[in-house]
Design brief:
21 strands; FAD/NAD(P)-binding domain; 3 domains; FAD/NAD-binding_dom; 11 helices; binds flavin-adenine dinucleotide
């Protein structure tokens, strides 16, 4: 599409993740409306595998798709894909301008309803908007190399992602380096776990702390960092200034928390309260902007979508926004967001990943009913005491996917099992064709 062209759409959805996909899926159901899916990248990358491939870039292609035709849905004839990222959205004019880079460079798009599903700034963990696949591959390879050579690594943020990074670091880079995990509260699982669940389970916190510090030799350090310099990752030696005045030397520093919602491209008219100080869209209980009712947000609004699994919450919120965008176009009343998703919102994550594959560790911590029985959480008996189908049909005998028979549902077995499980979900969230960089990446840049 030419940059000069100004295309008109009924609904525009911005974002490259599962949130945007499910919002488009919902909006596209009404065949007589035109939907712009501003995916913004010429590749897809499965975010749940980020800790694996950042620590081992050889794994990156396995979780990436560089062939747009494989993920662009033919079943949505009323959807137009745009593969350049958004530069600005002028909410007063209801106009989107794309970055001057990529296949749809500089394109301008108008909308009647807009859904913003752009996730959060997470340096290295997610690609930066506007990045080409070659730039991303170089970044992932540079990260892997820096981690491999590092003597001291600091991961900032002790939520689920920080804990996962520590585990995957040990799995792929061994035990030669010092690993420091910074925590604002001094405890693990205090960030995303604490905010998305009602309250972290103290027993799980204690267990994860023990495994991290004793088995994975990670130093959990009580410290906070307010200097904005450190909201970016640093892959070369430097010094980290903590708020208490202390300085820590590092070879690699990676923030492992969502720095801020990716909403900086949104601009509103004078006096309009579009974003709060953290960058979240100021919204009502419908996930709708208070300043611009035709704007909805998934995971980027002041109205939170709490509970686990997080991906299920994002999916249901996206479907809600897709439906409300259609309601708005039809002049119907916009509905309050109520999470009736499957599985229902849970207070705690189902599992704690401390690294994937051999050498990793995973704890099944909050499984719902039937899965709990299969995973030996009730009696601890394990195969052959579990009821069919469980291990009887899925896997012949005990594969230790739920832990060792008669032992707690945790350990290296579940961490190995998780790698296979991770590969089961991308397709249902719109990630297709993974395992192929496509023609953009020359053979010599591929590491596997
Ligand atoms: C390491 C890791 C492990 C996880 N494990 C689990 C798990 O086990 N279970 C679970 O339920 N959840 C898990 N999650 C959370 C899950 O990945 C997220 O909830 C989910 O990806 C959120 O989807 P999203 O579409 O809202 O945002 P994202 O996946 O972040 O997608 C948003 C996309 O929009 C793009 N974007 C940003 N700005 C622009 C722009 N200007 N123009 C165009 N596009 C833009 C972003 O680059 C990004 O690609 C994990 C996350 C991580 C990082």
């Amino acid at each position: 599409m030419s940059g000069e062209k100004r295309s008109e759409f009924d609904v525009a959805v911005i974002g490259a993740g599962m949130g945007a996909y499910h919002a488009v899926e919902e909006a596209a159901k009404k065949k007589d409306i035109k939907v712009a899916f501003i995916q913004g990248f010429t590749f897809q990358e499965w975010p749940l595998a980020a800790c694996i491939f950042l620590n081992n870039p050889k794994e990156h292609e396995k979780w990436t798709s560089g062939v747009a035709e494989t993920w662009q849905e033919k079943k949505w004839p009323n959807v137009t894909y745009f593969l350049s990222s958004v530069e600005t959205v002028e909410c007063e004019k209801k106009e989107i301008t794309l970055m001057n880079k990529g296949p749809d460079a500089g394109a301008r798009i108008t909308y009647k309803a807009l859904i913003v599903a752009t996730g959060a700034k997470s340096p290295l963990i997610a690609p930066t908007p506007g990045m080409s696949l070659s730039e991303r591959v170089k970044e992932v390879q540079a990260c892997g190399q820096a981690l491999k050579n590092a003597k001291t690594v600091i991961f900032n943020g002790s939520g689920l992602v920080g804990v996962e990074m520590c585990g995957d670091f040990r799995v792929h880079n061994g035990y030669g380096a010092k690993v420091i995990l910074l925590s604002r509260s001094g405890k693990v699982l205090d960030s995303d776990y604490g905010e998305k669940s009602r309250k972290p389970d103290p027993a799980v916190v204690q267990k994860v702390t023990g495994i991290l510090t004793e088995k994975f030799k990670v130093e959990v350090k009580h410290a906070s960092v307010s200097d904005p310099t450190y909201t970016d990752a640093i892959l070369s030696p430097g010094k980290l200034k903590l708020d208490n005045g202390e300085t820590l030397d590092f070879d690699v520093y990676i923030p492992c928390y969502p720095v801020r919602p990716n909403t900086a491209f949104l601009t509103g008219g004078e006096g309009k309260q579009l974003l709060d100080a953290s960058g979240a869209i100021i919204s009502n209980e419908c996930l709708q902007s208070q300043a611009y009712p035709e704007v909805f947000g998934v995971g980027v609004t002041t109205t939170k979508v709490p509970g686990h699994p997080v991906s299920a919450r994002i999916t249901i919120a996206s479907q809600h926004c897709g439906k409300q965008a259609l309601a708005l176009l039809q002049g119907k009343e916009v509905q309050k967001f109520v999470d009736k998703g499957t599985p229902p919102p849970m207070d705690h994550p189902m599992n704690m990943k401390i690294g994937h594959g051999p050498g990793g560790y995973m704890i099944w911590s909050g499984l719902p009913g039937p899965a709990k029985i299969c995973c030996c959480q009730c009696c601890g008996g394990g195969f052959p005491f579990c009821p069919p189908p469980c291990c009887w049909c899925c896997i012949p005998g005990c594969a230790h996917g739920c832990g060792t028979c008669c032992g707690p549902p945790e350990g290296e077995g579940p961490a190995i099992f998780m790698v296979g499980l991770l590969g089961k979900f991308p397709g249902s969230h719109g990630y297709k064709g993974l395992g192929n960089y496509g023609p953009e990446i020359p053979q010599q840049m591929r590491m596997s």
